[in-house]
Amino acid sequence: MNATVIAVQDKVNELLAVLDKDIQHIQDSLSWLNELRSLVIKRDDAALSKLLQSIRAQSDSYVSNEQQRQSLRKDLANALGCRVDPVREPRLEDSGLQEKSSNGVEQVTLSRLASILPEEKKAQVIDIKTKLRALVEQLKKEHLSTSLLLSDCARFNNLLLRAVFDLGKTGTVYYSPNGVAKRPALGRNSAFVSLRL
Length: 197
Fold this sequence. Notes:
Elements: H1 3-42, H2 45-80, E1 86-90, E2 97-101, H3 110-116, H4 119-165, E3 174-175, E4 181-182
Antiparallel strand pairs: 1-2, 3-4
Helix pairs in contact: 1-2, 1-4, 3-4
């Protein structure tokens, strides 16, 4: 085996280890979303606060894994001799176009790696790719479910606030001879809380 093939296989081994951490992070995210929904439904503010702190801490530590994955992809792109294409991207300063060269990282995909690796490594890469794809699909569904729950909670809270404080209701407003606005006295159809001081 030549040095390039060995270097690529070593980098692929490192990438597989990083992708295993990605799989674990996605699984953790799925469990966090389930727990988040449960705590929102139970209205357990203390546990919800602890969960959010834990998520923030885990997310901050996960950044190094993302950086390592990008670094490995860049190394693999260089080892595989991925072509560097110029990319034109707008600049805000002059609204013109600026030449920016890519590092070929976008060309390093799991499918491409699987196509050039020996059978044993190819199977590992395909297995990880399949797991990642399934987990990402599940994460999208769970994220949507959580978003819908939180949206419904916000809508319900808004409706409660409107009902309690009589917000947004035009109702009848009377004005005194000196121009002061008066609402009708609290009655059967009025708000729970009077906003008069």
